[in-house]
Amino acid sequence: MPRYATLLICMLLARGMLLSSPAPSSSDSRLKNSFRRPERNGWIYVHLEGKPAEMGFQHGYWLAPEIQTTFRSAALIAEHEGKRPWAFYRETAEKILWPHIEAEYREELQGIVDGVRARGGKLDLWDIVAHNAMEELSGYYVPWLNKRDKVAAIVRGAPESCSAFIATGSYTRDGKIVIGHNNWSDYAVGENWNVIFDIVPASGHHMFMDGIPGVLASDDDFGVNSAGLIITETTISRFEGFDPGGIPEFVRARKAMQYASSIDDFDRIMREGNNGGYANGWLIGDRKTNEIARLELGLKNVTLERTRDGYFVGANFPVNEKLAREETPAYDTKDPAISGSARRARWEQLMAEYKGKIDVAAGQKFLADHYDTFTRSQDPSQRTLCGHVDLSKEGLPSWQPPFGPAGAVQSKVADASMMETLTFTAAMGHACGLHFKVAEHLKRHPEFTWQKGYLRDLNSHPWTTFSAAR
Predict the structure, then answer these.
(1) Are 232 and 222 in contact, with CB atoms under 8 Å apart?
(2) How far is residue 30's CA from residue 33's CA, in Å, rounded to a whole number?
């Protein structure tokens, strides 16, 4: 083996990024009733069940290799975008986040560490807590900290990521709820957003959601629970604000998925201790009442809209005008070239065109859509619902660097009948079928070679239906 390769492996082992021993026997009593299924069309299915520490251990054990890989990529992106070393994120996890995490989730986070270490990994608690908060630290806390301390630093801040819809009543084919979401991410991280979590906690509701290895919440936040709620979100782009005394967003999101039985429950849990981190426009549906809602959760401004006959869409645009003025001042809502605004216009077109015909098949089609409302052409880019930042054209706002290896990494759709059985359909990779090839992209755009070794090819897979184990 070449000397440099040996040194690299030693460095990765030291940082807990590779497993240093094979998996031990799975006879550990903490693994009771849990399992991992073979990969299917790019997705990994894991079933977790029990008390918090047990579920955490199962999570860490069954997904240890993927947690190591995902952590490595997420740490790289966080360090690059936040312009801070990983030691800063670890310290923030311990001193800012940990005091506001309740005992149940502390136990589950420690369980993840224990499970990873049972497989030979070396990540510790502060690595895992910071990993769980990767969205809210580099995109929200760091910009807030820079502003507070008058540090002149250019960071990307709250990004534009994800497209989503929820519809009911006269807008859907059967008059019942249909929901869909695609997750936009840096490919280095997003290629790992391929876990189907089937979670049966000792307390709370059975949860069925997509997610990323090592994180308690879905984190792109698509899931259904046994109380009949289905939930997703899209970020509010260019959001500014953070409360270090609040409860981490990933804790509130997980708690809401686990314990909310109604739209009111979800609203209450997400507002309580709101820290402004990972500010989102949440889309919520209640199968029991056929009601849907949009919770626009800023820090200073929070708005809940609801209906039994209509739709809500998300594409990273601010809705409430007061929120837009006070908390997204860099977002020009009158600029139709901005990704969020262009996609908002496309959603409105599709909702009108498909009124009375929206079903799962239509939702899948929406999430593969390449129509650019600004150029009025079929042209995959950052302005289309199926986002392709790696193909984006020049002329976008300055915070949207063109040709970055990022875009829609996966998609999910469900209707009311699927919700009843904790089922949804999912497509890993771009729903449109286009593939991302690392070598080709870095040859054209060598400015992103700093991600070499972390990026993998992101191939598109067919839509596949998953159901919770019963």
Answers:
(1) yes
(2) 9
CATH number assigned to the domain with residue range 3-148, chosen from the 4 options 1.10.10, 3.30.750, 1.25.40, 1.10.439: 1.10.439
Mean pLDDT within 132-156: 87
Residue 412, CA distances (Å) to 46, 104, 147, 427 in order: 17, 29, 37, 6
**Pick from 123, 157, 120: nearest CA to 137:** 157
Exposed e or buried b per residue across 220-253, where buried means at least 16 C-beta atoms within 10 angstroms of its C-beta: bbbbbbbbbbbbbbbbbbbbbbbbbebbbbbbbb
**Residue 398: its pLDDT value, please?**
52
Q: What region does 55 belong to: left with phi over 0, alpha with psi -120 to 50, or beta?
A: alpha
Distance CA 124, CA 67 (A): 12
List CB contacts of 337: < 8 A, sequence separation 6 or more. Answer: 374, 383, 395, 396, 397
State yes or no: pLDDT of 303 exceeds 50.
yes
The answer to whether the CB of 249 falls within 8 A of the CB of 135 is: yes
Beta-carbon contacts of residue 164 (< 8 Å; ≥ 6 apart): 179, 180, 181, 182, 232, 233, 234, 283, 313, 314, 315
Q: Where are the domains of the chain?
A: 3-148, 163-467
Q: How many Å apart are CA 18 and CA 167, to the nearest integer? A: 43
Which pTM does this prediction carry? 0.93
Tens-place pLDDT, residues 321-363:
999 999 999 999 999 999 999 999 999 999 999 999 999 999 9
- The CATH code that applies to domain 163-467 is 3.60.60.20
- For 47-98, how does the pLDDT look when each residue is reduced to its tens digit (9 = 90+)? 999 999 999 999 999 999 999 999 999 999 999 888 899 999 999 999 999 9
* Chain-centre distance for alpha carbon 5: 33
Order of strands across the sheet with 406-415?
Answer: 310-314, 163-168, 178-186, 406-415, 423-428, 464-467
